Amino acid sequence: MSFNSHNRQLPLDPWHVLLGRFVIAEWRKVPLGVLYGAILVTVKRLIINDSAFHQFISKHWQDSTLRDDFSGLPYYRVELWTIGAVLSVLVLVFSGPLLLKLFKSWIQGVVSGQTILWALSFFYYFSFEHLNLSHRITGAATLGLLLSFLSATFQILAVSRRSKEPTLQPAPASTKIIFEEHLTDLEADSPIESASQDLLNRSELVESLATMIVVSQAPVIAIEGDYGDGKSSVLNLLRERLTGHAIVVSFKSWLPKSEDTLVRDLFNDIYAECRRSYYVPQLRSRLVDYAKTITGSISPLRALSDIMPATSQRAEIADLGQSLLRIPRRVVVLLDEMDRLQVEELRVLLKVIRGVTSFTNLSYVCAFSRKAIEKMSPPASAEALEDYYEKFFPVSCPLPKPEADFLLRVLKARLDKVFDLLDCFEIPDDREKFQKRLTEAWEDALSKFLTNLRKITLVINSVSVAVRPISREVNTFDLTIIETLRRFFPEVYEHVRRNGEAFVGAGSSWGSRFYSGDQVKAARKLLFDRLIKELYAKESSKPAADMLWWLFPEFAQQLSESDGRSRIGLVNDEDLAQRERRISHEDFFPIYFGYRVPESLYSEAELSRFLKSMNGSRSAPEGKALFARTLAALPKADPRRLSFLHRLLRSIGRLEDPAAEALSEAVSECASEYSYDSILPSEAEAGKAMLIVFEVAQRFAQSTKAQKVLEQAIALATDDTLALRLLTFSLKPERNKVLKDFSNVRPDALKSAFLQRMRKRYVDHFDTVESSLAQADRGAFVTWAEFSEEERQSEIGFWRRYVGASRKRLARMCDILFPPGTIWETDPRPHIERLFPLEEMKKMDGDLPNDQVLEEFENRALNRMRKLFAGEFQHGVGFDDLEKL
Fold first, then answer.
1. Residue 6 above 50 pLDDT?
2. What is the pTM of this model?
3. Which residue among 111, 284, 389, 589 is least enclosed by CB atoms within 10 Å?
């Protein structure tokens, strides 16, 4: 099956030839229209103009027995007017779109409308009672001829448009997607619907497909890909791209229940989509006739050769082709999931596709896995399906596999989302270890079989279910690998579960029996040798062995010896395995398979008692004192402390309004007691405290109380970092995932509250500034200075007053304004100049006496600032320069 890019660009006949064809095809409709017009005029004259008929009706009404039991129409005047008005509105609403569609179809040459035009012409002129008969006939004929000429003009213009080279307008420019912000939104089992969701950059492929359909007018295109490669997503993108250029019919080929219903439903969908835009006469009946032709001609369905196109029923096919050709836009049928069909259904569908050469205005785009289609060919058949493949699908577009690096990023992002939701990472180092191990395992094993987004989603789903009851009781990396093993290699997973003693290297006990050390080693070696041999027998099962290598040091050692590959061996450190809750430790191994967990770090009973006490507080100070006592009772760095804040965050809804307000103030007043995460603002204790404030503000988002909550939290924060983060995330709604309703949030008032707080801490209460600087944050001073030049001078004035004649205080100022461990993309000097004049700072360094003993960090701060003065960081501060700081 080949196609010609100009299969519809035939030479255009002269206009008089086209006009003649129009007259020959449409003249029979003229007398029919005149007949309809005469009938309408007769009915109209009978009802409105015939006085004798009116007298007849009146006489029978007068003689009717109903008249004595009926008060007359005037008695129901209100009801009748109401009914008439409602019916008029309904007629207008339901007939309006139909009339617009008919008018659109007429002016675009889809229908001629001759019957209606001549009927209306005669009805219009014959309604004028004062005209004589000859004038009525002349007027009606003249109007009918004029409208017929206009209709012929539309038809000729439509033919002219079809004769031109088709074009495809350029796709609208799309906004560049920031991958990292959307990786967690990917759902492989839910195909994307628009280009704005396309992270795999399929736009070039879709543009090529759209060009082949609209410009080259390819009759059949195959989109090949394995399960989960994104075939449905490409079809959705193609549907979006063709909007306005074609009539697109999306058809799930596997939904119908039989061969007959498959063809019938397909053609019904084609008709339904065409009907949405145009009125095409006889299209439905011709599609039904063609469906009967298709299903009736292949009832045996025994040999693949039976589906070659038949030569009968040419008239029906030609009529259907003409009906489709009337449609101004190309009809494109998107056939999804053909590989889910039964063999007989597939043959019927191939019969339909094969007949597309008879319809020049129709294209099929078929999405399937070629391997799955070819497996449907009966093994005893002499003619295999692949022999016909090129005939059925002259254009084939294999879907490219997503890059392994992209899939890894998706896996990491979505696993992070799952683990963050359950607060699985106690400290940032846990996350870093997980990411590092996952990357290495990906390169070694996972990338070999996790080749598309659907498989990534299967892993995410398994991990999401498994981690909920055992959050923080297992190692996140080990849980990810063992759940991946369970999903894709269930027999190997079950083997590991049954032989746990061998994999964890448990002493001399094995099951219910005891052996000597040598016996245990020999039995373990035999077990592992058999497993390795079995897994290495097939290329597809080798990744299972590689995944076990990452989990169990005992197995890793033997696998390395067997395959001869040099790997960085896993450390068989029992203490480390216990600290990290690894699956290779015998205490934790059962948790991974039994999903059993110990009691929560901060129990529900404790949390319930606290919430009850908060709700029972008689005043805000009493509630704040309760929170402070509870927090102080949990030692710093104790996991129960973070667990308390985390669970409290999830339980805001259990607090009454006054208690919730008191809590938001209490967590701010205790800001100096929290641990902070400099990378992830919402993590650690301070992160949970910040989220608690926003959760309370969201609770009152429909009133001005939300503003009060935020202002009070900023004003009462005893640490600059928490106050700054509250302000920052309050001014950037797009980054705030907790407070979603900002209708009652006034940014200027929040800025003013932050400004007043900085003035109060560092100007009004200067006597206690030493304790305040213990919780100082450079970003807070930057924000203060950026309010205005006046406030910048106030900030500079504070530092002058603070430093005075003390070199020790100068060092403290340098440490805050130019802190260590900070990356600067450009020269930091202009940024620091905004906070304090560098020349004045340099002069202070030269003039202030060395009469104080400086601590090590203070000496480093002064040396760091001197390097800054000397221009050593004029190109910024990168990772390699951090040691200089």
1. no
2. 0.55
3. 389
